[in-house]
Design a protein that fits this description.
By secondary structure, the protein is an alpha+beta fold. It contains 22 helices and eleven strands.
């Protein structure tokens, strides 16, 4: 079968699996509000609003959190939300935009998983089994329908590309390093934690192939080159993120340094729960309240059949099996996770199941076809059973009652008309979720004034005009210190307006004790606050664009010489 026909079949099968996976969203005009759904809806709306304000590279969402602002784009890339945000501005409902993301994400995840298995396996049916296993494993179903973890769900697109890149660089043709660039680059621009998990996966493979690598210097060069290109292409996001993280302390720093990983380990019984539960994941919760955190029986046990193969002539498959089971067992509560504080960045040990499922689809897709049985019957039976089980797992979504429809306006989510926008938080939780990117020591936004205050936080009379990240303040008394109702992030700068020439003059701007923007006024009564891209933000954007331009030129030259 030629590649074109195979790809068409993969596309058709991926579309079928996508329709089966997202059927609750297709047959019902309803979007359940799961753990993080509101945060991701807020990201779409925030990016769309930035486009309306003429800010095409959003770094601050100025209207979030009661217009105090939130810098989530500097820490959590919205690169792949650009199209949904544009569609939202063109009139598509925010619910439909969210569902569209899931449709595209599910299709691409299945397609790339099939491409991965197709490369490794010599069996024509294995890629179809791999695609179903990747989409419908319990962990991914929980991610989509219980956690609403859109960033992590989008990460499922790029993980097969990472693993395919690892295969080429460490086991096959090291010149095909671009798969690693696409995989890691995509993860960097979708979900930071999944990027870190993929790095851990790569490290496992390097350890297993270390001796082989030392004997093949060209592979080491290809790895270093792939890392360099990935860094340069994503520098426009990663470098400004690191700059902000070093500029001040955020709640994120507190969470990653003090959170107890042990609290999120898994008791043994959680590996065998198999009914979708719309709960949470603490290890002390009952089975009735605890969400499913495992990869499903098929992925847990079928890969072991590969060990029965007499001639294990594919070291990559065996290594996937070994790493997959290591990562499967690591989150168990029998291990002393309180000593693994260096992994606190991943927040929850059970996130390792995401990478475990990726690795185990390789031996799980190959093992059933290594026996002298009718391969077509095996494929149809396994795929049919897995699809039916997947439908059964997703069916409870149809009974969800807490949610919104395509007619729901975004304003209804934050004005209190539908839900409490704070629900026990000191900030607008429906927009900020865990508020990871608020500066440490932020005030209680429920009660703080939205007026300009003096250095003692006493409101003063002023006239405010806002457009995007620019705030104009008039009628202030000269030569005083003021605090603006804007959360401080590096890049904010206050200018005084010369009353005679109308020119702007940069003045001292800093973070006030309550983490808002403070400045020392001069003899002017009018001031302008702007978010000014830092040198690192500007230069890193140039680096990424220039790198992309060079790659395109090289590719064009090669294609013209063929």
């Amino acid at each position: 079968m030629n590649n074109r026909k195979r790809n068409l079949l993969f596309i058709a099968f991926s579309i079928l699996c996508t329709l089966v996976f997202v059927y609750p969203y297709l047959v019902k005009d309803f979007l359940p509000l799961e753990h993080d759904t509101l945060f991701h809806l807020s990201r779409i709306e925030g990016l769309a609003q930035s486009f309306k304000d003429g800010e095409f590279i959003a770094r601050i969402y100025p209207y979030k959190n009661m217009s105090f602002g939130y810098a989530s784009p500097l820490f959590y890339s919205d690169f792949f939300l650009i199209i949904p945000a544009l569609l939202y501005n063109f009139g598509m409902s925010i619910v439909t935009c969210y569902k569209l993301i899931l449709l595209i994400t599910t299709f691409l995840s299945c397609f790339f998983a099939m491409k991965l298995v197709s490369k490794i396996s010599l069996n024509e049916f294995a890629p179809y089994l791999g695609g179903v296993l990747y989409l419908f494993n319990n962990y991914r179903i929980t991610d989509v329908y219980v956690r609403g973890a859109l960033g992590e769900v989008m990460g499922f697109i790029f993980l097969p590309l990472v693993l395919l890149g690892i295969y080429y660089l460490l086991y096959d043709d090291e010149t095909k390093w671009h798969y690693l660039v696409l995989g890691f680059g995509g993860l960097a621009l979708t979900h930071n934690i999944t990027f870190v998990l993929a790095c851990i996966l790569f490290l496992f493979f390097i350890i297993l192939r270390f001796k082989f690598l030392l004997q093949n210097k060209n592979r080491i060069k290809s790895i270093l080159f792939a890392v360099l290109i990935t860094f340069l292409l994503t520098a426009f996001f990663t470098l400004p993120m690191l700059e902000q993280l070093k500029s001040q302390d955020f709640y994120l720093n507190y969470y990653t340094s003090s959170s107890s990983m042990t609290s999120y380990t898994l008791p043994l019984w959680k590996y065998f729960t198999n009914t979708t539960v719309f709960g949470y994941g603490s290890n002390d919760m009952s089975k009735e309240l605890s969400m499913v955190l495992n990869i499903g029986y098929f992925l847990m046990f079928v890969p072991l059949l590969y060990l029965l193969k007499k001639k294990k002539d594919q070291p990559f498959v065996l290594h996937c099996l070994i790493i997959g089971y290591i990562l499967l067992l690591l989150p168990i509560n029998l291990l002393p996770w309180n000593y693994f504080f260096m992994f606190s960045l991943i927040q929850f040990p059970w996130r390792l199941l995401m990478i475990s499922s990726l690795c185990l689809i390789i031996p799980a897709s190959i093992a059933p076809f290594q026996f002298n049985w009718n391969k077509k019957i095996i494929a149809l039976s396994c795929i049919g059973i897995l699809l039916l089980e997947g439908i059964w797992h997703i069916l409870p979504v149809m009974n969800r009652t807490s949610g919104i429809t395509s007619k729901t306006e975004y304003s209804q989510l934050i004005d209190g008309s539908m839900i409490d926008p704070f629900y026990s938080a000191t900030y607008v939780r429906v927009e900020l979720a865990g508020a990871d990117y608020l500066p440490s020591g932020s005030p209680d936004y429920r009660y703080i004034t939205t007026e300009v205050t003096d250095e003692n936080q006493v409101p003063v009379h002023s006239i405010q005009t806002r457009k995007g990240t620019t705030l104009t303040i008039d009628n202030l008394e000269p030569n005083r210190t003021y605090i603006l109702p804007v959360t401080y992030y590096k890049g904010y700068q206050v200018y005084s307006v010369n009353n005679e020439t109308n020119k702007l003059e940069k003045i001292k701007t800093y973070q006030a004790p309550n983490t808002l923007v403070g400045f020392d006024g001069n003899n002017s009564s009018s001031y302008v606050l702007k978010y000014v891209p830092t040198f690192i933000q500007t230069s890193s954007l140039f680096i990424s664009i220039f790198t992309l331009f060079i790659i395109i030129v090289i590719k064009l030259k090669k294609s013209l010489h063929k």
